[in-house]
Amino acid sequence: MKKIIRLFVVFFVCGLSGMIAFAEPSSIISEGKYVMGDLDTKKDAKTQALMEAKRMAMEKAGTYLQSTTEVKNFQLSKDQINTIAAGIMSVEILNEDWKMSGDNMVLTIQIRAIVDTSNLKGQISRMQEGGNTENFKEVQSQLAALQKELVELKKQAQQQADSPGAKKQPSPEMKEKHKSLVNEMSAWEYIEKGNIAGDNQRWEEALAAYEQATALNPPIAEAYAGKAFALYHLKKMDDALSTVDKGLVINPLSPRVLRIKALILKEQPEKVDLALEIVNRAINLQPEMARSYRIRGEVFIKMGKFRSALKDFAQACQMGMKESCVRAKGLEERMKAGKSKN
């Protein structure tokens, strides 16, 4: 009997220690490697190796989060888990190792990623209220496509160097293309940093990240959309409007840019009708995006069209935005009490 009790105590303590471990930050070690080619600088190699190390760490962090009770209870998708992992992970470089492998220099970067789950429930709540899963997927998709282009360009440069009678140095066109790809990848990394900071309502930090992205000068509408969104939350409306218009010049059919412009315009009574027109365009382009219906609901509130607003909040709620469920319930109660008509 005593043996059974002792075993129970051991299992209880082990289980308790496991729960405590999940409450504390988790440390993940990962590595990224990059083989330099004739087109690369050491700075390029470091950027690429670090990006690979972060990607590996994020996958491990996502696997770790899947095992936590909170994530299991909320049954989040893989994209949602990865979005949360990116938002709660901080990274430090532990080691840079430069070695020759044949004719090429190879860089291996080792990093430590700290996954802080102390406010995991808050992160999940924000995710359910319309977190930037789509923005996260867009960034990862763009980075993967650019990485593929970079690999192909390196192959072309190597084939050119290996061909009989060819010059050993890459052509100016290849060098310019390589520089453009690396700049664009760096810009998307800054966009991701801005998105993460914005999700956590650190608007000054988000603004700084988006400004870094636009300073690299690739024509990315999402960088201007993010910057405008940060300026909107910092109450710098004129700057927000001029910034979002730059995004629309780059891509006039971007639903995100259109949504943010409508969000800004609804704060100006004389431009509410224009805000409605613009958010309607966003919905026509991307009818499956819950956030657009929530914004249109806010526009309808400004116009005094409460029944239309209720319908849009209910639509956004049905599509998974819990914040909109609260708005719909509150507005319905006001209308039943006769405080809001139409």
List the helices and strands and how they pair.
Blueprint (H helix, E strand, L loop, with lengths): L1 H22 L2 E10 L6 H25 L2 H6 L3 H10 L1 E13 L2 E12 L4 H9 L4 H30 L9 H28 L3 H13 L5 H13 L3 H14 L4 H11 L6 H14 L4 H14 L2 H13 L3 H15 L6
The largest beta-sheet arranges its strands as 1-3-2
Taken as a percent bin, the fraction of beta residues is 5-15%
Number of strands: 3
Low-confidence stretches: 1-23
Distance between the termini: 72 Å
Q: Kindly provide the radius of gyration, computed on alpha-carbon positions and rounded to a whole number of angstroms.
A: 25 Å
Number of helices: 15
The oligomeric status of these chains comes to: single chain
The outline comes out as globular
Average pLDDT reading = 85
Q: Class by helix and strand content?
A: mainly alpha
Order of helices and strands: HEHHHEEHHHHHHHHHHH
Question: Would you summarize the structure shown here?
Answer:
69% of the residues lie in helices and 10% in strands. The chain has 342 residues and is mainly α. The chain has a domain at 141-218.
Q: Can you tell me about this structure?
A:
The protein has 342 residues and is mainly alpha-helical. It has a domain at 141-218. It is built from 15 helices and three strands. The chain has helices at residues 2-23, 42-66, 69-74, 78-87, 120-128, 133-162, 172-199, 203-215, 221-233, 237-250, 255-265, 272-285, 290-303, 306-318, 322-336, and strands at residues 26-35, 89-101, 104-115. Strands 1-3-2 form a three-stranded antiparallel β-sheet. The protein is globular. The model is unreliable at 1-23 (pLDDT under 50).
